[in-house]
Design a protein that fits this description.
Largest sheet: 7 strands, mixed
Order of helices and strands: EEEEEEEEEEE
Strand content: over 45%
Distance between the termini: 40 Å
Shape: globular
Radius of gyration: 13 Å
Number of strands: 11
Length: about 120
Amino acid sequence: QVQLVESGGGLVQAGGSLRLSCAASGWTFGYTMGWFRQAPGKEREFVATIRWGGGYYADSVKGRFTISSDNAKNTVYLQMNSLKPEDTAVYYCAVSHGTGTNPQGYTYWGQGTQVTVSS
């Protein structure tokens, strides 16, 4: 069983930065860890994943967001720079036994953290 706890969300002006953290309890070594987001009235969408240190990004965040991990702390981070109002959403951390960007492929989810970007 894996438990995930996100933190670091908040309110920021457009162009600003935030760093989200996802602390995992339970075995996650070798799994894919991902960040997803869901805006009001929209489906949950892929943001970024990391596996064996390699990151993969949605086109909408490429060049602005960076995913990283600290294996010693069992924590994954999402550094978000140059934030835009359209980045406003609840951000979720998730773990998958496989790979991919489909939320249905992820087994464990955190409770989410709100990110609001004002214009």
